[in-house]
Design a protein that fits this description.
single chain, about 375 residues, mainly beta, Tachylectin-2, Chain A, four-stranded antiparallel sheet, 4 helices
């Protein structure tokens, strides 16, 4: 079904009186990177998770943040003595490359989420984040159970917080964040990007929307205000004007996702959004814009994930610019999950961990 949705979105995007151009590139090659995925194929401790945002802490180290996470062991192709927690993290040194070092609270036998929720009836999933003047600013989603949802979707993302972590180079279990509430009219931080004197944040507006649509809006705040802990958010509205009225936000594109990335690509100007249309799709696309606010190009499909069995779905594609090693290269992760009981995850530990893809772009030659 996600493939049908994707095809409809491509059709809608291709018609209309003022369709934007395609990105100024073409795909040379797109292939899996099992060598990068192997670092996350572990059999003890951290043995799988989804999410997989990465935030460079400096030129040498990146921070990985994950959603629901399995802690335990894998023996004879099955999860053994395993527990599911709601989030975790890892450090990965980039120069020279090293295996990730994973973090969660508690112990291996009694694990607890790395990012603790404020109340016992909620949990947290990390969104995107950025380091500004040595401080980590992290968008965090507040989630509660929704029993009426279909299998694998029995949750309600109903609020967001902005965490300020003064010493992000300390071990994540020692963080003491300052938590700032965010306006409930948006689902904040599906991606963010520092550019110039602003932090740009990409979000999904709450409220009704048309079928087969996930509009993405962009907000910004001055870095000076952010560091002071007093961000004033503006949004891009109709007529390319910035306003503090978040209800006036004008979508920058309408086929977005609840997890994505906005990055720069070596050898190209501008900014690149990486995502799966509507969040669940076998297709991974990119859009290009000269500025973080746009105007954004049409989507260009850069990779189609392998076809899986009926109950397995793929989602949450995003790019990781700090892993790229040459001009035109985008390293992308996506997640795999089972629309079934947790018992199936016990029997299929190979499913629930990040998959890596390398996409090589070059400037258009025609």
């Amino acid at each position: 079904m996600p493939g049908v949705y994707g095809s409809l979105l491509w059709l809608v995007a291709s018609i209309g009186p003022a369709a934007p151009p395609l990105p100024p590139c073409e795909v040379v090659e797109a292939k899996p990177r099992p060598d990068l995925a192997a670092a996350f194929a572990r059999t003890e401790g951290w043995t799988g998770a989804d999410g997989a945002y990465s935030i460079p802490l400096n030129e040498r180290r990146t921070l990985w943040l994950f959603g629901d996470t399995w802690i335990g062991r894998i023996e004879n192709g099955r999860r053994v003595a395993s527990r599911l927690i709601n989030n975790s993290g890892a450090w990965q040194d980039l120069s020279p490359p090293s295996p990730p070092r994973f973090f969660w609270r508690g112990t291996a036998n009694e694990p607890a989420a790395l990012l603790p929720a404020s109340t016992s009836d909620t949990w947290l999933w990390p969104g995107d984040g950025a380091v500004v003047q040595g401080k980590l600013f992290l968008f965090v989603h507040v989630v509660r159970r929704q029993p009426k949802g279909p299998p694998a979707f029995q949750f309600d993302w109903f609020a967001d917080e902005l965490w300020c972590i003064d010493e992000p180079t300390e071990e994540p279990t020692k963080w003491s964040p300052r938590r700032l509430p965010l306006d409930p009219r948006w689902r904040w931080g599906v991606a963010c990007r520092v550019s110039g004197e602003h932090l740009f944040v990409y979000s999904l507006p709450n409220g009704p929307r048309r079928p087969l649509e996930a509009p993405v809006v962009v907000g910004r705040t001055w870095l000076t205000d952010l560091v002071r802990g007093q961000p004033v958010w503006e949004t891009l509205a109709e007529g390319d004007r910035w306003t503090t009225d978040l209800d006036a936000a004008q979508p920058i594109f309408r086929d977005g996702a609840s997890e994505m990335s906005v990055q720069q690509v070596r050898g190209f100007d501008g900014f690149w959004a990486v995502y799966m249309p509507l969040g669940i799709s076998r297709d991974i696309v990119v859009r290009h814009a000269p500025t973080p606010a746009g105007p954004w190009s049409q989507p260009l499909k850069v990779y189609r994930c392998p076809k899986e069995e009926k109950d397995l779905f793929v989602y949450a594609a995003k790019g990781h610019a700090e892993l790229s090693e040459k001009d035109g290269q985008i390293i992308i992760t996506y997640c795999r999950n089972l629309a079934a009981s947790l018992g199936e995850h016990v029997k299929r530990p190979d499913v629930y961990r990040p998959q890596f893809v390398e996409v090589q772009l070059q400037p258009k030659t025609r």
